[in-house]
Specification:
This protein is of the alpha+beta class. The protein contains seven helices and 22 strands. A hairpin with a 4-residue loop joins strand 8 (133-137) and strand 9.
Length: 383
């Protein structure tokens, strides 16, 4: 009996110690990273005013507190126009730090006022609530709303001209929408999942060079194994899949002659589904037949990539012929005009086909064949 009582006492004390230990851990926690579809903290972006077509720009490269910002025209590799999206762990919100700040200062309200018209300025990052920003989708891009007072980063007096001052105001569709454009650095992947002809191989190499000259790493991976895709795509800001496809799947020819598949969902026979993150991806293009069509049991590849977080995805409803030629035309415009949006790069590429060509079911410039999910009204040129 004494032994039973002793064991019970040991068990009771053990439970009590565990309970006390956990109860004293109430102040130990890890903040979750903020989440917004199409953008990701830790990445660099330009902020383009959706209405003015001008860019949020620091007024000086000075790293001093209280440097203001304004709308200016885009200029290549301008550190005053490139911002790293960080995290304010105190409020689980975003921070915006210009590359021009050597000490990683952040955009902040100039003071603790709840009024409209408070200037947006540079300040040392203290984790204060006036430095935290909630970012969410709008029909024209994103709004950037202060965690402190709910006002949005906007232009003073609804200004849309070069030099307009950036301040905080109640949200307005006229001056508070911003496009986040990838900037500074980023990995790009061009997966060739089949054996190409000499002509198509040369075209792909030219595309790769144009992607690289637009600020990306410009990597090409031929006949990838599923592990290549699984590991690499979540780190990529621009990805192209080029090969044979059908509704809900992409064919992956292997170097040993075997054939694997990347499914949109519900994989079979040990193959892989598109279940990995694409949140870093600003743009994904499938140059594959029926990549924008679903099967009776699976969603389309375009839908799957979009659902995993990619900001904008393009594929084809029907069979496609010459999709690589179409992408090359797009990249020529993007390389030549760094601020050209994906939307206008497609429009200009379309115009290089005749009306009769655009009516062909398998033409990449046929708007009933090419299908894009997401908002293409932003530039992917990072320079």
């Amino acid at each position: 009996m004494r032994k039973i009582l002793k064991n019970f006492l040991i068990y009771f004390l053990s439970v009590a110690i565990v309970f006390i230990s956990f109860s004293n851990c109430k102040n130990i926690y890890v903040s979750a990273a903020p989440y917004t579809e199409g953008i990701m903290f830790g990445q660099y972006y330009r902020l383009r005013s959706a209405d003015a077509n001008l860019y949020l720009t620091m007024n000086s490269t000075s790293d001093a507190d209280n440097v203001g910002c304004s709308l200016q025209a885009r200029s290549s590799n301008n550190s005053k126009q490139i911002f790293m999206l960080g995290m304010n762990s105190s409020s689980n919100t975003y921070t915006l730090s210009p590359m021009s700040s050597s000490s990683r200062k952040v955009l902040s309200l100039a003071n603790n006022s709840n009024s409209n018209g408070v200037a947006i300025v540079l300040k040392s990052n203290t984790g204060a609530s006036i430095q935290g920003w909630n970012i969410d989708l709008t029909t024209q891009g994103y709004f950037i709303k202060s965690y402190f007072n709910g006002k949005t980063i906007s232009t003073k007096s609804h200004g849309t001209t070069r030099g307009s001052t950036i301040s905080s105001y109640d949200y307005s569709t006229f001056c508070s929408d911003w496009q986040f454009e990838p900037a500074y650095e980023g990995r790009s992947l061009y997966f060739v999942t089949t054996t190409l002809s000499t002509k198509n191989n040369d075209t792909v190499n030219r595309i790769k060079g144009k992607i690289s000259s637009s600020g990306y790493s410009g990597e090409r991976i031929d006949l990838p194994v599923t592990g290549n895709i699984l590991v690499a795509v979540p780190e990529s800001r621009m990805t192209v899949f080029h090969g044979h496809g059908s509704e809900g799947r992409l064919e992956l020819n292997q170097s040993n002659g075997e054939k694997k598949y990347l499914y949109s969902q519900k994989p079979t026979n040990g193959d892989m589904s598109f279940s990995f993150s694409t949140r870093r991806s600003s743009y994904i293009m499938f140059i594959s037949c029926k990549s924008a069509s679903k099967s009776s049991t699976r969603e389309s590849m375009v839908t799957a990539a979009s659902n995993q977080g990619a900001r904008c995805v393009t594929g084809y409803v029907n069979n496609v012929a010459g999709g690589e030629d179409y992408l090359e035309k797009m990249m020529i415009y993007i390389q030549k005009f760094p601020d050209m949006t994906l939307y206008y790069a497609m429009k200009n590429a379309d115009a290089e086909y005749t009306a009769d060509q655009r009516k062909q079911e398998n033409c990449p410039a046929n708007v009933n064949n090419r299908y894009t999910v997401g908002n293409p009204n932003f530039s992917i040129n990072m320079n």
